[in-house]
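Record type: monomer structure entry
Structure origin: computed from sequence
Chain ID: A
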Amino acid sequence: MVSAADRVTAALRQDVLDGVLPPGSRIPEAVLAQRYGTSRVPVREAVRALAAEGFLELRPHAGASVAQVPVDDLADLYAVRSVAEGITAARCARRVAAGQGDELVAELTRIVDAGFAALEEDRPALGAALNTEFHASIASLSQARSMAVLLRRVGEQIQWAYSTTVPQQGRRAWTEHRRIVTAIASGDEARASAAMEKHIEASRRSFRGAR
């Protein structure tokens, strides 16, 4: 059973990642308690947890505020992400080569199709959510548990930066996603890893160009 503190932590983290609570904004406990329909105790626990993750800042006598996006760390985050996601894409291709990939490829294809549909319908929030789902699904389907945990933390930091500059992944990104799925479906680990690493590098360049 999910505790009230865990529920508030997840909701507050998502509001920060989505830019609903922008960097620098003060977030009094009373306001958060009202927003999430709970008492101040779960809010206090959630604030401490997200401060430890770097999303919030706690100052004596000033309360909590949303931290500034760690833009200076992005080069390192992208380097970690490129290696980790290259591994997960290769692991997915390995599963395909072993005859375990039908449902895997079908699920990734479904997400990519939905991403292109979101573009056509001009639904940026849905597109951003699908982008996150695509990368999270590759990590999960790869069955590389340690990489999935690492990528969740790294991906959240990058998503946070993107929410302030590039709220929707464009046609370039979804075209690259399609190529990644095709590479995974081929069962060629090196091809899948290379396609993913090329996509991460393109994303890094697009972020730098949007700043």
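Annotation 1: The two ends are 41 Å apart (CA to CA).
Annotation 2: Residues 37 and 121 are 33 Å apart (CA to CA).
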